[in-house]
Amino acid sequence: MTVTRTGEATSERTGRRRWWGLVVIALAQLMVVLDATIVNIALPSAQRDLHMSDGNRQWVITAYTLAFGGLLLLGGRIADLVGRKRTFVIGLVGFAGASALGGAAMSSGMLFGARALQGAFAAVLAPSALSLLTTTFTDPRERGKAFGIYGALAGSGSAIGFIVGGLLTEYLNWRWCLYVNVPIAVVAVLGALALLPDSPRRAGARLDVPGVLLGCGGLVAIVYGFSEAEPRGWTDPLVLTLFAGGVVLLAGFVWRQTRAPVPLLPLHIIRDRNRAGCFLTMLLAVIGMFGLFLFLTYYLQGILGYSPLRTGLAFLPLTAAIIVGSTQISARLLQRVAPRMLMVPGMVLAASGLVILTHITVASEYTTEILPALLLMGLGMGLTFMPVFATATAGVAPQDSGVTSATVNTSQQVGGSIGTALLNTIATTSSAAYITAHLSGPADRARVVPEGVVHGYTVAIWWAAGVMLLAGLVAGLMVTAGPPGRGAADAVLPEPVA
After folding, report:
1. What sign results for the dihedral spanned by CA atoms 218, 224, 228, 229?
2. For residue 377, what are the contacts with CB-CB under 8 A and spacing of at least 6?
3. Which of 159, 161, 340, 409 could connect to 319 by a Cys-Cys bridge, CB 3.0–4.6 Å?
4. Rounded distance, CA 407 to CA 73, Å?
5. What is the pLDDT of residues 192-243, one digit of tens each?
């Protein structure tokens, strides 16, 4: 009897430790995700302070996403080779240092460099966070709850970034959008050292250097190409060269992975139908999501005249809906239904929200025309993100969990880059065509220009809705896995004893 009670007490302590560990992982993931958008609202203030040109200001955003998206595969493999906990702590410390450097920036070049450093350390931190979650929660029921929380943060982090960015910019100054990461990282480091399990370093592990150069080089070229397509245009020689070079490098990367003794990305990870379907669904969903974030931010501030703080608060219902969709719906149903039974309706709901937004005008009301769209979009993303993360990382051998996690994050980053460039180009072109067709004289300019801008937004949002429906189609056709609670086959393999 005493032995039984002791065992139960030990099990309860271990369980509590796991859930507190989830808090630490969630803090780190939230910091990484919100940093992609927290600076957006602060950008006008930073531009004035550091005397940036309009042409260069995009590098505050691009430097982060370029380093993050380009180096994720490398970060994932480092996590597998040297230990996930160690990599997690290194990523946190480096991210905090880069954030402090950016907050203290005295020139635009210093800020661009700090943002690139942030992205590089985020590329180390994000895969180790997700792989720690994958190997910590192996019980299907606990796994559903843990991934529900993680999916909620991944989906709502960008919206939270708008809110926090608005608060800090309005009541302190833009530098605090970077400084805020330091105390968060300190808490996360202390929590990681105390709570997270360590994985042993793999004996004789090696890094595939040619694979690193080909894979990371190809991703950097593709992400950079999409970021330059927005200001330069899709037919610019530099953009075309970057795309062509990226495709060649990635083709060389795939060839290398078939021959490398220790590949950077074992191809069996992406050959799995369910996993490949999750990666593609994530990429397409994030492209569509940027149709909301990108244009609604500009619409609320530029057309309806909202302040940065009010704009951030306007996204709050979206954040709440994502959390409800992930933790209260997806996490509860994933043990009973197949993942695609959540992902397909999720994408249809999100697309419906975007379709509602296509009816906005220069005088739309928030409560009747924008709020319903945000709620539908949030529920849809919450239903989708959680099963994508859980299914993509299920059944992966521990030595590959980091690189699998990195591939999910890569899908997000590449999707974000494509969404920004593609949808912004569509919006700009449609706006210009509308204004040219309707502007009959200088007297009409004050009326026609705002109408033309909103017309461009609605055209791009129609495209985003189409991409969301395509994501739902991909999920329905490719993700054929059953409910993970039916057996142990889908559970994450346990960490081997050293």
Report:
1. positive
2. 289, 292, 318, 321, 349, 350, 353, 354
3. 159
4. 7
5. 887 777 665 555 556 778 888 888 888 888 878 877 776 787 888 999 999 9
Q: Specify whether the CB–CB gap between 312 and 165 falls below 8 A.
A: yes
Cα distances (Å, whole numbers) of residue 52 to 36, 46, 168, 191, 356: 19, 8, 21, 38, 37
HSE value, Cβ hemisphere, 13 Å, CA-based, for 31? 35
CA distance 360 to 468: 19
Taking a C-beta distance cutoff of 8 angstroms, is the pair 469, 351 a contact?
yes
> Under a CB-based contact definition with an 8 Å cutoff, are residues 431 and 452 in contact?
yes
- Separation CA 32–CA 245 (nearest Å): 28
Count, residues in the chain: 498
Q: What is the secondary structure of 4-73 as a DSSP string?
A: HHHHHHHHHHHHHHHHHHHHHHHHHHHHHHHTTTHHHHHHHHHHHHHT--TTTTTHHHHHHHHHHHHHHH
In the chain, which residues have pLDDT < 50? Answer: 1-4, 6-7, 486-498
Contact 92, 189 (CB under 8 A): yes
Asked if residues 285 and 415 have their Cβ atoms less than 8 Å apart, the reply is yes
Which pLDDT belongs to residue 267?
81
Tokens of residue 52, six digits: 């940036």
Task: Name the token pair of 170.
Answer: 């309005």
Q: How far is CA 115 from the centre of its chain?
A: 16
Residue 330 CA to chain centroid, in angstroms? 19
Residue 395 has, within 13 A of its CA and on its CB side, a CA count of 17
The token pair at 163 is 């809110």
Q: CB-side exposure of 394: number of CA atoms within 13 Å?
A: 29
* Rounded alpha-carbon distances, angstroms, from residue 143 to 150, 399, 407: 10, 19, 20
Tokens of 392: 């993509």
Q: Are 491 and 136 in contact (CB under 8 A)?
A: no
* Residue with token string 């808090």: 23
Written as six digits, the tokens of 321 are 């809906």
How far apart are the C-alpha atoms of 162 and 61, rounded to whole Å?
A: 14
What residues contact 77, with CB distance under 8 A and at least 6 apart? 207, 208, 212, 264, 265, 402, 403, 406
Predicted structure pTM score: 0.77
